[in-house]
Structure prediction request, 658 residues.
Amino acid sequence: MVPMIKIAVDLQGADRPQTELVDGALMAVRENEELYLYLCGNEQELTRYINERGYRTERIEIINAPEVITNHDDPAEAFKNKKNSSLVRAAQLYKDDPDIGALVSCGATGAIFVTAMMMLGRIARISPMLLVELPRIGGTPLCIVDCGANVDCRAEKLVDFAHMGIAYMKAVGVAAPKVGLLSNGAEDKKGNAVVKQANELIRANIPEFVGNVEGTSVLTGEADVIVCDGFSGNVLLKTIEGSAKAALAELRKLPGVQDAVGEQLDAVYRKYDFNTQGGAVLLGTNIPVIKGHGAANSGTMYNIICSAARLAKNGLVDKIRAEFAANAV
Amino acid sequence: MVPMIKIAVDLQGADRPQTELVDGALMAVRENEELYLYLCGNEQELTRYINERGYRTERIEIINAPEVITNHDDPAEAFKNKKNSSLVRAAQLYKDDPDIGALVSCGATGAIFVTAMMMLGRIARISPMLLVELPRIGGTPLCIVDCGANVDCRAEKLVDFAHMGIAYMKAVGVAAPKVGLLSNGAEDKKGNAVVKQANELIRANIPEFVGNVEGTSVLTGEADVIVCDGFSGNVLLKTIEGSAKAALAELRKLPGVQDAVGEQLDAVYRKYDFNTQGGAVLLGTNIPVIKGHGAANSGTMYNIICSAARLAKNGLVDKIRAEFAANAV
Prediction:
């Protein structure tokens, strides 16, 4: 029997219905014959939808969890009271089947966090953090960590983010990832108090460190891992998206541009439309959680399941453990 | 006699020679007959250069200050020891002639700061801050404050930044500027500890507040003033530039694009090339200091002198005083 990559999928809690998101899940399972998906949602509706469309039902298992956690729910309350929600049930599957390699959801971020922390277990001593992978022009991707989980950080945490980013980049195939620290200047002495201290700690502990990185050179510089606190990282990520799209939209409005290069413009624009392209990865729990945007469509669901499968197959969590074990203090 | 707008111009300390930068200054004075410029630099060289080219010498006065402060100088030492530098002499002119309305320099940032603080005097109770004005698509500009002067801030300072931004936008012709607070989410409760507290303070004190702004909507949203600490503001500003340029460069590489729309691409690209376009404004001293990038050319010098003239003419400092007086606590 082929070794399976098992993924637990929460199909509810996003803007679009589970019957749309499941299309992406089924596309992923059809393409990748190592993949085995637990599809959590309203079983009756999902079964009818899948049967009506004549989808094959190999390597999928529908888990009945009809309750929905929304953005309006208090995360902790929702976790406590909605035990039959697709999110909580998806996380619970990991307790029954430790072969599950990742959890995928496009639901409410806060509830995903609470549920992951309560149900998936933490990798020893590591605080959970959010990593986002970005495409880079003409080359390997880069990642930003943390993108929003830890908005107030001590400098030591930024060292953890660096280790986590290194492990992640290795899991996606970058053999010797380089680490940069987001700052307001390239020189070591630049930064706010936390960043200045983090620069010293990272320089002392992480040989892959290439120094401070400014906002101008995140997309074009040599660093594969951009380290920052969750507040700055969130500003960075959203500003990259907003500014790239604004500049392209501005160009499109100029006379003749749309007619001449509309298709090329669309292609570049889509690359910077992070919301519908990929997801953020919650790291620090015993299996990674890939969180797609609430506005996800079936394409997003397909993308994030493929990402989850790749991370599970490439042993991301083992790489994280190895990275931290090698650098234990 | 026409009322004069007097500007003190430091022509040295940038990457390019004073003889190149002075071209921009002379262009500005030729175009604007209210303008009177004190040109600080090596008098002998400047006089020869201006005479050789047959420039008119009305409304300019060359101040001999041959010493140069560079980026390698310690700012405080340089201020103390280089009293005959073009920067220090330019600032000193204000002591002799209080009609001077602004100081312009493309020299070393740290030295400009120290010199401004020591020579120009502070507007009561306000910490100096750096404001950058950005063009906005199809409309009025916006500004980011602080862009790097205060990398570690208490929440109260962000309220000052908001007042300063309002005064600035009024001075550039926006009658009722709206204020947004940079955060990692649009909801009031989002932010790091300082931003959450700043949200409450700004909401309580500034009627022009329209709420938190995310990186995705800085360029396209309704806020005319983006308030943030100097670290986040620097990341924001540089990321806007880097991402817009990266996306446009990526598009340019696609087959056929350069030939079809190369000129339009250049036009949009230039708009996001903040370094050579404009300058940052140091606010909080008795006259504003407009600081161009070290890589400034004659066009940059022309642009920042025009900005300085506009701010002086429109009574920026009076507007700042009025804004703070109206909101005194």
